Amino acid sequence: MSDSYPFPRLLALTVPIRRVDDGAMSDKPSYLGLLNAIANAEGDAHTYLQVWAEKTPSEDVRCVLLKVAAREGEHAMTFARRINELGYEVRRKDDDRRAKAMEIVSSDCSDLEKMRALKLHKLDRGDKPDIFDDFFKDHTIDIATGELLGRYIAEERDTGRLLRSCYEQLKSASVDIDLTPTGDRLASLEREVDALTSAVTELAHALTASAANGERAKARMK
User: Fold this and answer.
1) Which pLDDT does position 217 carry in this prediction?
2) What is the pTM of this model?
């Protein structure tokens, strides 16, 4: 995710993780907090995207949201499983932004407004650096975890591109609607045109009368 992600930034979620006392490992991996952060953030995203998908009036938007939600849910479960394999359990961290995101997607705002509020159109960084660039700076990451992280990063970047494309289409559709006068707006424009036409006609009559009066006044002076 990015600095503008609606949930806590991944690195801010590196809270202590509960140890499963099965003797699986003696040393706590340095990257355990990162895995816990991903499991939390992805689980939250899965939840709010599912709620949003049920709320949207657009079938196209619904398809996008469900596709991304499925990815996020899989990530949450996969990283929770990996944490368990390492001998620990996922720990939840309460955050107000989780509730805020649920409030946004449950509202009657348009899909475009929800995208902007959650800043999902900014997840795609293109060729610019993103939060994932630093994930593999920890050279102690084991092979199995590295495989999970590699796929996760690739899918998250693809998700960012998918959401940006959805946002751009919603934005374009919104502009088209704004520029197309229909219904009450068209009637209002017609009334304004009629009023303007009437005003111009009255002004023309006034100018004509004024000119006629001026000619009569000149004739009397002669």
Assistant:
1) 55
2) 0.69
